[in-house]
Every structure is written in structure tokens, then in C-alpha cells.
């Protein structure tokens, strides 16, 4: 297995029992996750960027929350329309998207 350059975590309000409910789920967290999957695939970055959905980060009022490691950058209120910018600026450009950063 290749070690990724980036690991992106997206809150989808997943629960241990498989249910998805909560703030990030109702605010398009699942759509954000799907958009990241599409962008990673379209850019051919599958081996360089890993993507994981998560449960609650505990800051629901800031959701949907996206965290990018190893940079430890947290993004708040991410919409599906923001994913391309995060991919362009942060993942491929190495620059934090300031307007979304926590």
C-alpha cells in the first residue's frame, strides 16, 4: 500500500450502527464526500489522496467539517461547491483556503 500525501476526513455524521443523522448529514456532508470522491478520481489522485467519512467532530455549528492531514487544517461549513477549490488550492497547490479554514 502506498502512503498517501493527504488524508481528507469529511464529517457525514456516521454513527456506529450505520445510521447517518445529525447536522453534517442534513447540511450536505454526504454530498461533500461524494464530490471529493469524484474530484479525486477525475484528477487521478487515488493513490495520493485518501478519503474517509467520519462521525461527529463535536463542532456541529461549523459543519460540514472537513479535515486535511498531515497539514491538520480544518475547514468549516464546506459545501459541495467548495470541494473543487479545496482540491485546486490546498491539495494540488499547497495553499490553505482561508475563507473556509477554522
| Proportion of beta-strand residues | 15-25%
Give the CATH class. Alpha Beta
Largest sheet: number of strands, sense, barrel closure: 4 strands, mixed
Written as H for each helix and E for each strand, in order along the chain, the element string is EHHEEEH
Structural class determined from secondary elements: alpha+beta
What portion of residues is helical?
Answer: 25-40%
Count of helix runs? 3
Number of strands: 4
CATH fourth-tier homologous superfamily: Glutaredoxin
CATH architecture descriptor text: 3-Layer(aba) Sandwich
CATH topology group: Glutaredoxin
Sheet with the most strands: spatial strand order: 2-1-3-4
Poorly predicted residue ranges? none
**Number of structural domains:** 1
- Give the overall shape, derived from the CA principal axes: globular
Rg (CA only): 13 Å
- pLDDT average, as an integer? 90
Set out the fold topology:
Elements: E1 6-11, H1 23-26, H2 29-42, E2 49-54, E3 66-69, E4 73-75, H3 83-91
Parallel strand pairs: 1-2
Antiparallel strand pairs: 1-3, 3-4
Structure description:
This protein has 102 residues and is α+β, with helices and mostly antiparallel strands. It has one domain (6-91): Glutaredoxin (3-Layer(aba) Sandwich), CATH 3.40.30. Helix content is 26%, strand content 19%. A four-stranded mixed sheet has the order 2-1-3-4, with helices on one face. The model has no long low-confidence stretch (mean pLDDT 90).
